[in-house]
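Comment thread on ticket #2218

A.B. wrote:
> Attaching the input chain for the structure job we discussed in standup.
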Amino acid sequence: MDQKKEYLPRVFDSILQKHLSSSGAVLVKGCKWCGKTMTSSRASNSILYMQDADNSASYLALADTQPSLLLKGDTPRLIDEWQMAPVLWDAVRFAVDQRQAVGQFILTGSSVPKDGVTAHTGTGRISQLLMRPMSLFESKESNGAISLKSLFEGGLDISATSSLTIQDLAFAICRGGWPASVTMAKEFALNTSVNYIEAIINEDISSVDGIDKNPQRVRFLLRSLARNTATMAANKTIIEDLQTNDLSISAPTLDVYLNALRRIYVIEDQPAWFPAMRSKSAIRTSSKRHFVDPSIATAVLGTNPTGILKDFNTFGFLFESLCTRDLRIYSEANSGSVFHYYDKNNLEADIIVALRDGRWAAIEVKLGNKQIEEAAKNLLKLKEKVNTNKMGEPSFLMVLTGGQLAYRRSDGVLIVPIGCLKD
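C.D. wrote:
> Ran it. Output below, let me know if you need it in another format.
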């Protein structure tokens, strides 16, 4: 079967093309199995697979002696898993300098190499992009009736209907946005995330920095992070959680483990937003904890769609993590980033989308319809507290739900099902 016929278009496709048009080389980084190689190969005209079993040894030997030979080929030339031979980074940077042309190379990598293995940062020559697993719009589960771009441009008179049920959302959370699992039969699709965490525990987390890590400790750490998904749990909380399982871990050792998980793009915390306020208000600085995909949490907890449907509290946190993943993907397509807001008075916004041009929007995530009223009031309170003379008025306020109907309330707050949203 022709693999390209199975390709589902990604929001990332246009982002990659944009950067190829403005940079000599582009680094596409992200977790394993998120689709980096497939997406990058479609944008390339020649490919070097560093993990090709038949040729890997020869490629590594050549990288040690004359790395420039590995760069020969039609451009853009894809160098897949470049970090296997970190010298290729400096070779690409030098080639870009010499050629003085854009769109020469695409590098992909599922881990950050050890510190100090490259001589130069690549600033100005190599553009860096983070790719994530698929959003619901990319997996064709969101109908995309409401565009984030359109909302920021003032298209706020919305009306749409999502076909996703709560059961559908529970399955989507547990299956995840892994391209391989999205096209699988349902009875097999849940295995991808389970296989992924086993690879993390038994191999990836130790190989990324060369430091052996206790697999049992890694497993319990992942479980603790899963139980604290979408919260601001401090490292102290994680340490105490591990101690309840008779596993002692020091703060410095925890940092080593967490940094390793970041280097293989397994965790992606959500930073706090610091707007200018009308009056002094202490804003919490802690980041929210998230895996790059919510299915990692369900897999490590050993649960499934039926299991999370029986625990609506956990379901709510996992749903927020799903929405955060999707908003990160949609925001990046609009030159934006995702934050959260929480102050000393417990006023919060689960997601703040801030664009580079200064526009911003506040979003509360609520799985059920019963919480919409309170969420809308909180968003309006936040709007009143922000110094809009300095920050500008919010482009919109939104309650992102697991429901079916999208509409605009009389107070201007938008109610949008995640099953209607796209970039």
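A.B. wrote:
> Thanks. Noting for the ticket: The first strand starts at residue 25 and ends at 29.
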